[in-house]
Amino acid sequence: MHNAQKYAVIVAAxxxxxxxxFAAEPIPPYKKIGExxxxxxxxxxxxxxxxxxQRIMMVEVSDRxxxxxxxxxxxxxxxxxxxxxxTVLRIRQGRVEFYALRAIAPGEELTANYxxxxxxxxxxxxxxxxxxxxRL
Length: 136
Description:
The protein has a three-stranded antiparallel beta sheet, with no helix packed on it. By secondary structure, the chain is mainly beta. The protein has a single domain (9-112), classed as SET domain (Beta-clip-like), CATH 2.170.270.10. The chain has one helix at 43-50, and strands spanning 9-13, 19-23, 32-36, 39-42, 58-60, 65-68, 80-81, 87-92, 95-100, 111-112. It has one helix and ten strands. 6% of the residues lie in helices and 31% in strands.
């Protein structure tokens, strides 16, 4: 299996929520940072697993398949949501990839806008961005 990380990152306490993933080196704009890997499961199983959870490490990659990263060793599973993100999550050929939206400095927390979530507006957003929508 190939190395999912293209740039060095570390997992540490996050001001947004729980633990987050942080750049350990400069990351240039528009470059692939890494991937989120995990167990490939059906979307129906993914939706069953996330019921009632506050921290969700699940991504639907198609209408039928999802990736459950809850037991993955990949650090990108700790990427927190932000309404003003510095990365974008892209699904390519069943892979969940993160790309830098701009230059990211060492020590900066990596964030992505998850747009639709299993929380369906029932969770308060803590990103702190000036344009925060308030709920996930």
